[in-house]
Amino acid sequence: MMLLLAACTTQSKETTSGPLADVNAYWLGQTDSIQSSLDSLSQKTGRHEEAAVLQDYFARARRYFKHIESLTQFYFPEEYARINGPALLRMEEYDDKIIVPTGFQVLEEKVFSDSLDYATVQHETKVLQIIIRNLQNTIHSNTLTDANVFEGARLELLTVMAMGISGFDSPIAFQSIDEAKASLEGVAALTDFYASRLADESIKTAWHNQLQSAYAYLDKPVDFNAFDRATFIADHLNPLSKLLYQYQQAAHVPNNTFLTAVNLEKSTFFEPGVFNVDHFAPTFNRGLKPAVAELGKVLFFDPVLSGNNHRACASCHVPSKAFTDGKVKSVAFDFQGAVARNAPTLINAGFQQSQFWDQRVSFIEDQVNNVIANPIEMHGHMEASALKLMKSAAYRAMFKNAFGQDTITKRNMQTALASYIRSLTGLNSRFDHYMRGNKSSLTQNEVDGFNLFMGKAKCGTCHFAPLFNGTVPPLYRETESEVLGVPAHPDTIHAKVDSDKGKLVAYNRSLHTYAFKTSTVRNAALTAPYMHNGVFKTLEEVIDFYNRGGGAGIGIDLPNQTLPPDKLLLTKQEQAQIIAFLESLNDNSALANVPTTLPAFNDARLDKRKIGGEY
Description:
Blueprint: H1 2-16, H2 19-46, H3 51-67, H4 69-75, H5 77-84, E1 90-91, E2 98-99, H6 104-111, H7 118-140, H8 146-164, H9 176-192, H10 201-218, H11 229-250, H12 290-300, H13 364-373, H14 382-389, H15 393-403, H16 410-422, H17 430-435, H18 444-454, E3 481-483, H19 503-507, E4 515-517, H20 539-547, H21 572-583
Antiparallel strand pairs: 1-2, 3-4
Helix pairs in contact: 2-3, 2-7, 3-6, 3-9, 4-5, 4-8, 6-7, 8-9, 8-11, 9-10, 10-11, 12-15, 12-16, 13-16, 18-21, 20-21
C-alpha cells in the first residue's frame, strides 16, 4: 500500500510540473479555444448570419478539437464518441434505449445543410458546449502519464490514416485533409513538451523536418477526391510513425505494459505482428503455445466433430478458397437444403470484437460451439465429441502435449479450435509490401484504386485501413454493423430487400433490422459470392451496388439504412481500379496447409473418415 501511495504521489507531482503539466495545460487550453469558437458560432447563428460565416467558426472549433483528439480519444473514448461520433442513431445490443447522436458530425450536417435551420444549429451548438464543459471537468480530475501521452499520440497517426483522410468524420464538409494537418500539429505540440529530455537534437530535427514535409503535402491545392492518400501514408505518415517512436525512446518514455490491440513495440502500422490477436481473445485463451493451434488445425479438418462423422469445419471454410466455400450458401447437414447465410472468410477473423454476420457472440470460442451444435451445420455436440475423442490414443496424446493433460474437455476443444482460427492471419499482401517501402509491388492502377477506396468511393469509412474490416481504430473495441439494403436477388429494376432481418433476429432491437457485420475486404477477390446472402457473384456487382447508393439506389426503402444513399458517380474505369486494389490485398498462400493425416481410432469406420469432410 505504501508503494502504491508513493507511486500515486510521484505521478501527481509529475502532472503538476514538467511535461505532463504542459500537456494538461495545452489540453485545457484547446478546450477553451473550442468553447470560444462555439460561442462565436452561437452568436452568429442567433443573428442569422450567412452559412459561410457559421461554417468558418465550426471549422475553427473542429481544428482545435483535432489538436487534442489524441488525448481525448485515448483517455475518454466514450466522451470522444459524444463529441465526434457518427451522426447516426444507435442502440446497444442489450438495451432498448435509442442513443441520439451529438457532437461535431451532427452539427456539421446542420451547418453545411442546403437549407439552414438556425434553431437546430443553435441547439446542437449548445449541446456540444455542454459536452465540452463536461470534458473540461473530467480533465481537471484526470491523472496523466508519459506513456499514455505517447501512446495516444502514436495512435493518433493511425486515426489520421484510418479515419481522418478517409473522410469518416467529415462526410459533409470534406474538411478531412485540413483537419489531418491539425491532428499532426496537436501531436507535434505534445512532443515539444518533451524536447528538453532529448540528448540528441538530431531526432528532434528529423521529426520536425518530416512534420514540415507532411504539412506541405497536406497544404497542396487538391480537393478531397484527388488527394493521393497512398503517397501520404507511405512517404509521410509511416516515416512520422517511425520517428515518433524514436522520439519517445530518446525521451526515455517506455511503452505501457498492458495488452492493447496495437503492438506499440512496432513503429508503423503495417509491420508484421503490429496487431495483437490476444486483445480480441478471452483471458483464458491468450498467449498459448503453438501446439494448441496445431491441435486446433487437426480438429478443424476432422469430421469426427459432426453428428455423422462426414462434415468438418473445413467443409464450409476451404483453405484454397481463402477459408470460404465459393457457394451462395453452404450445403446444410445431410444435404437438407442450405444454411442461412454465406460462409465468410476466416482469415483475420481474430481481429474482430464479434462473430457471425449478426454478431451474436463475442468470441470465436463461442462461435465454434454454436456451429458444431447447430443442427443444419454440423449437428454435433461438444461434450459428446469430447467423449468420442477420448477413445483415440493419438488425440489424447495431442491434448496432453497442448494442455498438459490427456483428459479432453469442451473448453480445451473450443480453445484449440479458436487458437487455430486466430492463427489465420493474412496481413502480408502486395499492398502491405508497398506500405513497407516496396513501391514496385503495386501498379499505378492499384494505387489509384486504393486512393479511390479511401476517398471518392468512401469504402474506407466502413472498412478501416489497415485491417480493412469493421473493427474501429485506433482502440479496436467495437466491430461495426451496417444496414445496406442488400437485395434478395441481383435485380436493380424490381429490387426487394432480402428477408433476413440480420441483428434483429439475434437481439430483437428495431434499429438493428437488416443490420449485418462489416466484414473484411482483405482476400475479397478470392471469396465470391458476396454479402450475407451471397447475392452478388462478382466484385463488379458489389461495386455497382455501392455506386448506386446501396439499397436506396435500387428502390429499396429502409428508413434505418446507415449507408449514405448518395450515388458515388464512379466511372467504369474507377470501379475497375478499386477492384484492382482489392486484388492487391490477397494473402492466402501461406495459410492453405491441410493436415496429411487424421488421428487414428481403434474403429475401422471412423478411421476411414475424410480429411476436411465429405461435403
